[in-house]
């Protein structure tokens, strides 16, 4: 069931758990994530970066595939189709394509410009029943060409953006896209607590969910994080399982080269990663 992310995140905030956002790249990713969310009776958010949208030949293709698959798989849990780290133009394209949620990542603009553009997009999204996420501070590292410096968010700037009526707020708290380096100092819970203090009852989003230790995830949820984004970890588990299949020579046995066989171990690995995250985030059984 395709829905906006608002209700699922408000429920998560009230229930002290987090909804997983898992990024999709193709049919296999989408199917694996949808089936696992359904199996676990968990609400889920399918994230689509601008790069992944382009790879899948455009947001219209993505929306058509997700809508059709949601129906053909008989998915009954709430599913939001969400633009991840969207540009201003990308947000309009996804609204037009039929996404149910958007993220406007205006974190690289001066705060006044971020406020101006976010205000406009909040109005447009809400008039059409979509949810909208905004970002303050920046997430470190790189994701699909979006590069962040990783500075912690200013709690007052978070309040200015939250007051515009966004449905969820991504605040940089030392989180990084991709693998965390060995010398990573960890999440800044001081920043998270200060942001929470300023913004009150608004779901917070934790990007860079790959590889954050379980105790930090749980502490972040206890401090108001209601949505956690995971991308790289599914890619790593898919790549690892596929490598093992090929290294074992299974692609050379019988019809092992058939993509439906070749890609199956990777799909199972994505399902296992999504299962682990849904359990860790506490969203199993919350649909
Ligand atoms: O926006 C998506 C993410 O923040 C995912 O980050 O690739 O480090 O899991 P990740
Ligand atoms: Zn992100």
Automatic annotation (TrEMBL):
<feature type="binding site">
    <location>
        <position position="178"/>
    </location>
    <ligand>
        <name>dihydroxyacetone phosphate</name>
    </ligand>
</feature>
<dbReference type="InterPro" id="IPR000771">
    <property type="entry name" value="FBA_II"/>
</dbReference>
<keyword id="KW-0456">Lyase</keyword>
<dbReference type="GO" id="GO:0006096">
    <property type="term" value="P:glycolytic process"/>
</dbReference>
<feature type="binding site">
    <location>
        <position position="207"/>
    </location>
    <ligand>
        <name>Zn(2+) 1</name>
    </ligand>
</feature>
<protein>
    <submittedName>
        <fullName>Fructose-bisphosphate aldolase</fullName>
    </submittedName>
</protein>
<dbReference type="GO" id="GO:0030388">
    <property type="term" value="P:fructose 1,6-bisphosphate metabolic process"/>
</dbReference>
<feature type="binding site">
    <location>
        <position position="105"/>
    </location>
    <ligand>
        <name>Zn(2+) 2</name>
    </ligand>
</feature>
<feature type="binding site">
    <location>
        <position position="177"/>
    </location>
    <ligand>
        <name>Zn(2+) 1</name>
    </ligand>
</feature>
<keyword id="KW-0479">Metal-binding</keyword>
<dbReference type="InterPro" id="IPR011289">
    <property type="entry name" value="Fruc_bis_ald_class-2"/>
</dbReference>
<feature type="binding site">
    <location>
        <position position="85"/>
    </location>
    <ligand>
        <name>Zn(2+) 1</name>
    </ligand>
</feature>
<dbReference type="Pfam" id="PF01116">
    <property type="entry name" value="F_bP_aldolase"/>
</dbReference>
<dbReference type="InterPro" id="IPR013785">
    <property type="entry name" value="Aldolase_TIM"/>
</dbReference>
<feature type="binding site">
    <location>
        <begin position="229"/>
        <end position="232"/>
    </location>
    <ligand>
        <name>dihydroxyacetone phosphate</name>
    </ligand>
</feature>
<feature type="active site" description="Proton donor">
    <location>
        <position position="84"/>
    </location>
</feature>
<dbReference type="InterPro" id="IPR050246">
    <property type="entry name" value="Class_II_FBP_aldolase"/>
</dbReference>
<dbReference type="GO" id="GO:0008270">
    <property type="term" value="F:zinc ion binding"/>
</dbReference>
<feature type="binding site">
    <location>
        <position position="135"/>
    </location>
    <ligand>
        <name>Zn(2+) 2</name>
    </ligand>
</feature>
<dbReference type="GO" id="GO:0004332">
    <property type="term" value="F:fructose-bisphosphate aldolase activity"/>
</dbReference>
<keyword id="KW-0862">Zinc</keyword>
<feature type="binding site">
    <location>
        <begin position="208"/>
        <end position="210"/>
    </location>
    <ligand>
        <name>dihydroxyacetone phosphate</name>
    </ligand>
</feature>
């Amino acid at each position: 069931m395709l829905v906006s992310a608002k209700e699922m995140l408000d429920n998560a905030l009230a229930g002290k758990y987090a909804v997983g956002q898992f990024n999709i790249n193709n049919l296999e990713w989408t199917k694996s994530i949808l089936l696992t969310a359904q199996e676990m009776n968990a609400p889920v958010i399918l994230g689509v970066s601008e790069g992944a949208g382009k790879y899948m030949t455009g947001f219209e293709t993505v929306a058509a595939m997700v809508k059709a698959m949601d129906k053909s798989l008989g998915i009954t849990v709430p599913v939001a189709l969400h633009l991840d780290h969207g540009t201003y133009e990308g947000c309009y394209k996804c609204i037009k394509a039929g996404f149910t949620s958007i993220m406007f990542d205006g974190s690289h603009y001066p705060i006044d410009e971020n406020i101006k553009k976010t205000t406009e997009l909040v109005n447009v999204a809400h008039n059409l029943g979509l949810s909208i996420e905004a970002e303050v501070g920046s997430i470190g590292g790189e994701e699909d060409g979006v590069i962040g410096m990783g500075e912690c968010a200013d709690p007052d700037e978070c309040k200015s953006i939250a007051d515009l009526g966004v449905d969820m707020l991504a605040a940089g708290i030392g989180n990084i896209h991709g693998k965390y380096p060995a010398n990573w100092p960890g999440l800044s819970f001081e920043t998270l607590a200060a942001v929470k203090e300023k913004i009150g009852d608004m779901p917070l989003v934790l990007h860079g969910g790959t590889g954050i230790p379980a105790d930090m995830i749980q502490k972040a949820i206890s401090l108001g994080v209601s949505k956690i984004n995971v991308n790289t970890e599914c890619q790593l588990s898919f790549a690892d399982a596929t490598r093992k299949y090929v290294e074992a020579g299974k692609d050379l046995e019988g019809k092992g080269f058939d993509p439906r066989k070749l890609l199956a171990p990777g799909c199972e690995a994505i399902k296992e990663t999504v299962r682990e995250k849904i359990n860790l985030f506490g969203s199993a059984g919350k649909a």
